[in-house]
Amino acid sequence: MKLIVGLGNPGLFYANNRHNIGYMCVNRFARDHKIRFNKKQGLARIGTGEIDGEKVVLARPQTFMNESGEAVSRLVTKYKIGLSDLVVIHDDLDLPAGKLRLRRGRGSGGHKGIESIIAHLGKGDFYRVRVGIGRPDIPEDSDIDKEQAIIDYVLTGFTREEKKIIDGVIPEVSRAILCLLTEGIEAAMNKYN
Description:
Elements: E1 2-6, H1 21-32, E2 39-41, E3 44-51, E4 54-61, H2 68-79, E5 86-92, E6 100-104, H3 112-121, E7 127-132, H4 146-154, H5 160-183, H6 185-192
Parallel strand pairs: 1-4, 1-5, 5-7
Antiparallel strand pairs: 2-3, 3-4, 6-7
Helix pairs in contact: 1-5, 2-3, 5-6
């Protein structure tokens, strides 16, 4: 069984924010495979289905991003998921808007949702699908609070130009996840990184 988690913040207020790209991508993957998010389980909305003969659980944590680990750890325990069967989709400030990267393991890269998951699971050896959202342009000599500027940036929507790029990458993420599930990480990285 595989657990595929799209990170984001719950509620309509956050629905189209850059930080919710994980939700957007897991929603597309669910739609592509006719899986409905029709249950609430372990602080998450989930949907279950089968892909290529293997059972999958898709999840959108209903905790806020910084507490994603609580929801994910409950699901990992409930479904007895090994870390090699966990895929987490999330935004990445260090990638340009629309760039896609798959990898396994490593640290959080400063992403609070990933930090929370690693803290709750005790290890970071799970698959990540990182979707670039770019970084706000903050001049080095600026008096702007850089941390607050980043928070404001991730909690706002995409520009019209970014939205076109993101609309193109979301189906690509769905295909990359399917490739990861059916062909493995090396094949998926070769095709989509």
